[in-house]
Specification:
The chain is of the alpha+beta class and about 700 residues long. It is built from 18 helices and 22 strands.
């Protein structure tokens, strides 16, 4: 595919698209067999979709399918793009192929309506059901109807819509289960007991007497959930939000610090409602999602802070929503009330203020107050379950670290105990070692504003922690740009769902997954229909260089002047180019007597002459800790200066690859593998403390792999 055209489609540059000779490129296909029209649908730009359809003329869109037999209409349902969906229906109706595309089935036998109901895309399902030729009860290869899959995933609005439109709830799937039976086994039936009454029942329309909590027609196109079989008591449903906070409006006299934070709180309320409507029992929000993070001094962050009580020091439940003593702590009270209203456990990052004096605490700061970057967990009843102070600050001179690092856990009413960590804490021995050894934590809530670097991307580090500790990780990151993005839900290293904002513009994404309480249970790997992973070849930025102006701008706004560029380490970089069908090629890089080796074999499907590099480092890492690094990665261009760039995609398939180094025995090693797309768990065979990482049977395009060791 023409990369410049792919980029123009993705970013909505209609004029650039029109300047291309698309007619001669209509037979081009991407990695998954997707066409330019598929990519246009994924972009959600209606003008581009209509233009691409116009170029096709009277072509039957049923003939344009990817490798999974997904039509552009399927993609519109997967991506939650109702404007693109409407344009496709108009075209298909005009050429007399509306019924065919409405009821088309992919390799799994799943129709567009099925996928809308799978992903909770209410608006899309509604548009499809307005078409008279739609088969509302069409079954997939496993026998599930759209109503089955809506019930399995707890999409209340879709369930209500399907029943209103006459969906049959006594059809059995291949497991001999009806959607009504699945409904009655689910917790959602508790609040909607009349939903599946027979239409012949004397109560007539009582089955539509929904709890008012579910009556709003939310657009759930940003929510993704994984369904799986198994005892409901063995699983819980968790959500994470990748969220980019509002831009502070300095020109508005009404934009006070409190007003700014409450604007973000209002957004949290909406996403909590969306998550709860999908059956989520817990939602994790990112670091600095409320505060915004643009602080340089202690006095600058002070107006954003509130005194947060410690529930471990209270003999009675602390519920800010109900307490008069919290009337002047508006943020805390609002969050507590949101948890109650949506009946969901909420984990939120905010600022904690604790006054002190030298008489009671010799470590009291000169301004008489401790200021902490703090995770707070609220129960479904609005009770403060726990608060955790960040232990390891990343250039946050306006906050105090928790000294010594204190592990914090909390237990929910769905019988899962969670440990708590914030951002940089994930790389340090404490308090995570106590969480694992003393509390046997198997579930972690993790709020972060992670700065991506090509040897330690956010999602890869999250996955690595999950695998190393055989744990579930619910990780929420800021979605400001591709530099600071990457959220996901992981179980023992397996991706349940994940997302990366590939652009330079803010983007929010809600991820919802069904999670085994015991991570040793084989969790399903993500696939195209289940994850927040982008589908088109350009969706992840090909190369982002933040070493100069872009990084400086980000540094100024988010961290203040004390933070060094993540790539300022004095590393040894050995560039090399790849060619098709190379076998057991060996590269070595040495830094301060630390030897890093990379051995690889390529397939016939590679970018000939593409530059990669092997990076080694051993020493004091950016003023934070002693570390060793062995990292092989695709460079941003064919210029060796680009070999520290952030690169998220590749067009080269490697047959196998291995990396190793002579690491110090007392260093903790984080293994990571980056592919495009990022969906597989290539860490399965890695054991804690191994000095090498070997991967084979690589299904995706290879970007890089690393062993990052920290003292």
């Amino acid at each position: 595919m023409d990369y410049s055209l792919v980029q123009a489609i993705k970013f909505g540059h209609i004029q650039i698209v029109k300047n291309h000779d698309i007619e001669s490129l209509n037979n081009s296909r991407g990695l998954s067999g997707e066409s330019y029209l598929h990519l246009g649908v994924a972009s959600g730009n209606e003008a581009i979709v209509r233009y691409l359809i116009k170029i096709l003329g009277d072509v039957d869109l049923m003939t344009i399918k990817d490798h999974e037999e997904l039509t552009p209409l399927h993609w519109a349902c997967l991506e939650g793009k109702h404007l693109a969906l409407g344009a496709i229906l108009e075209h298909s109706k005009r050429i007399g192929r509306l019924e065919a595309i409405l009821n088309s089935r992919d390799v799994s036998g799943e129709s567009p309506l099925y996928l809308c109901c799978l992903n909770g895309f209410y608006n899309g399902a509604k548009i499809l059901l307005e078409q008279p030729s739609i088969d509302i009860n069409i079954q997939s290869n496993n026998g599930n109807t759209p109503l089955h899959i809506a019930v399995i995933n707890g999409h209340m609005n879709c369930i209500e819509l399907l029943i209103q439109r006459g969906s049959l709830y006594n059809i059995k799937n291949n497991n001999n289960q009806t959607s009504k039976e699945l409904w009655l086994k689910s917790s959602l039936s508790n609040n909607n007991s009349y939903l599946f009454y027979s239409k012949n029942d004397d109560k007539k329309n009582d089955f539509l007497n929904f709890n008012t909590h579910y009556k709003n027609n939310y657009n759930h196109d940003d929510t993704i959930i994984n369904a799986d079989s198994g005892n409901d008591n063995d699983y819980y449903i968790g959500a994470v939000l990748e969220y980019s906070p509002r831009i502070y409006n300095y020109r508005d006299p009404n934009e006070t610090p409190l007003a700014y934070v409450l604007g973000n709180v209002k957004e949290y309320d909406e996403y909590a409602r969306q998550a709860a409507s999908q059956g989520a029992q817990i939602i994790v929000f990112p670091e600095y999602g409320l505060l915004g993070g643009a602080f340089a001094t202690r006095d600058g962050v002070f107006p954003y802070l509130e005194i947060i009580p410690d529930p471990s020091e209270s003999s009675s439940p602390i519920i800010p929503c109900n307490g008069d003593e919290f009337l002047n702590r508006t943020i805390l009270q609002a969050l507590s009330c949101i948890a109650i209203k949506n009946k969901i456990v909420m984990v939120v990052d905010m600022g904690d203020l604790q006054y002190c004096n030298n008489e009671t605490d010799s470590n009291c700061p000169s301004d008489g107050r401790f200021q902490y970057n703090t995770q707070v967990a609220f129960s479904q009843k609005g009770e403060i379950l726990a608060k955790y102070h960040k232990s390891h600050l990343y250039g946050e001179s306006y906050f105090n670290p928790s000294i010594p690092p204190k592990p914090v856990v909390f237990t929910t009413d769905f019988n899962v105990t969670f440990g708590m960590l914030i951002c940089f804490d994930i790389l340090f021995q404490e308090p995570q070692q106590q969480l694992i050894q003393n509390y046997s934590i198997k579930n972690l809530v993790y709020s972060t504003e992670w700065v991506n670097v090509n040897y330690a991307y956010a999602r890869e580090i999250q996955q690595s922690w999950s695998k190393l500790n055989n744990a579930n990780v619910l990780a929420a990151n800021i979605g400001s740009t591709s530099l600071v993005s990457g959220s996901g839900i992981y179980s023992n290293g397996n991706f349940l769902s994940s997302f990366l904002n590939p652009t330079t513009k803010p983007e929010n994404k809600l991820l919802v997954s069904r999670i085994p309480k015991d991570p040793s249970i084989q969790a399903p790997s993500v696939n195209r229909k289940e994850s927040g992973v982008p589908k088109d070849p350009s969706i992840q930025a090909s190369s982002v260089n933040y070493k100069e102006s872009n990084y400086q701008a980000f540094k100024h706004e988010s961290f203040g002047s004390s933070v060094e560029t993540p790539t300022s380490i004095n590393a040894t970089i050995v560039p090399f180019t790849i060619e098709p069908n190379q076998v057991n090629q060996s590269i070595t890089s040495i830094n301060n007597n630390f030897t890093c080796n990379f051995i690889y074999s390529t397939s016939s499907n590679v970018e000939s002459g593409q530059l990669y590099s092997l990076i080694s480092f051993s020493g004091f890492f950016n003023g934070f800790f002693y570390a060793q690094l062995c990292s092989a990665s695709r460079c941003g261009s064919n210029d060796p200066e680009s070999c520290f760039d952030n690169v998220f995609e590749s067009q080269s398939i490697f047959e196998n690859a291995s990396i190793d180094g002579n690491f110090y025995d007392d260093y903790r090693i984080y293994p990571t593998v980056t592919t495009y797309p990022l969906t597989e768990n290539y860490l399965k065979n890695y054991n804690l403390g191994d000095y090498s990482l070997n991967i084979s049977d690589i299904k995706e395009y290879f970007v890089g792999m690393s062993l990052f060791a920290i003292q």
